[in-house]
Amino acid sequence: MKIHRIVGAVALALSLAACGASQSATGSTQAESADDVIKVGVNPVPHAEILNFVKDNLAPAAGLKLEVVEFTDYVQPNVQLEEGKLTANYFQHRPYLDDFNKSKGTHLTFVAGVHLEPLGLYSKKVTDVSALPGGATVALPNDATNLGRALKLLADNGLITLKDGVGTAATERDVAQNPKNLQFKPLEAAQLPRSLEDVDAAVINGNYAIEAGLKPASEALVLEKTEGNPYVNGLVVPSGHEKDANIVTLGKLLQDQKVKDFIQQKYQGSVIPAQ
Predict the structure, then answer these.
(1) How far is CA 33 from CA 5, 38, 57, 62, 142, in A?
(2) What pLDDT, on the 0 to 100 scale, is given for residue 143?
(3) Which H or E run contains 57?
(4) Rounded to whole angstroms, what are the CA distances from 16 to 7, 11, 63?
């Protein structure tokens, strides 16, 4: 009887150990499954729309699980990516990222270009750029890269002249000639569409223009040229994760011909697929 009790106890212990191992393995699988979710920070338009197209139409067949996290600004998607709260983000161009890394001390890397949102000059006061009056107030994005980009747009269309060599690094101090005596009003990029009620014109980033119901391809007084344009928006990850298998796959999906067709059909020239 004693031997039988010992054998039974051992069997019970082994059974419980096996059960515990099974639960542990299940927990591990669940954790790994959670880790496989790619959490991507985006601006609502067009980034979330493009990424949701990938999530619904391409990601399942590729074995990717995407979570789309929307932000309405240009700062938090990078801050939260650096802090590890996101796996990747998709809202910015390389010049903005380079400036952000330099000024904020972040360590983020551009992985794959997806689309271009041409910067445009908009107005509710005039319908032609030549009709801007002397002393007109023009709102501009206040972040360093898009401010220079906006001033270059004005210079390319004859409204101002910039000092030689400043290019897209220009600030208001680099305006060499300003024949209309334009008054510049730098604002956070997200506020620019709302500023149209209070200023004579505003240079607005493509995503915020579309989100506000503007049509860059037809309503902008002047629109940024796409040829040789460095401001392609793309996928960004923490440095060192560029070659992670899921990131490589996501980058390829975002550049898929089906995504390019979706962009062309939905935005009709207001958003342009990267080449």
Answers:
(1) 42, 11, 21, 15, 41
(2) 93
(3) helix 49-57
(4) 14, 9, 35
pLDDT digits 0-9 by tens, 194-218: 999 999 999 999 999 999 999 999 9
**Beta carbons of 206 and 156 less than 8 angstroms apart:** no
Torsion of CA 237, 238, 241, 243, to 10 degrees: 40
Per DSSP, the three-state class of 104 is helix
Q: In the prediction, which pLDDT does 227 show?
A: 79
Q: Are 170 and 219 in contact (CB under 8 A)?
A: no
Could you tell me the two tokens for 102?
A: 């330099």
Encoded tokens for 133: 């009056």
pTM of the prediction?
0.79
Please give the Cα distance from 246 to 216 (Å, whole number): 34
Are 240 and 249 in contact by the 8 Å Cβ rule? The answer is: no
Provide the residue type at 116 as one letter: L
Higher pLDDT, 275 or 133: 133
Cα–Cα distances in angstroms (integers) from residue 191 to residues 14, 76, 100, 120, 249, in the given order = 65, 16, 20, 15, 35
Q: What pLDDT shows up at residue 35?
A: 58
**In this predicted structure, what is the pLDDT of residue 117?**
93
H-run or E-run covering 114: strand 108-116
Give 64's contacts (C-beta < 8 A, 6+ positions apart): 38, 246, 249, 250, 253
d(CA 153, CA 163): 14
Residue 191 has pLDDT above 80, yes or no: yes
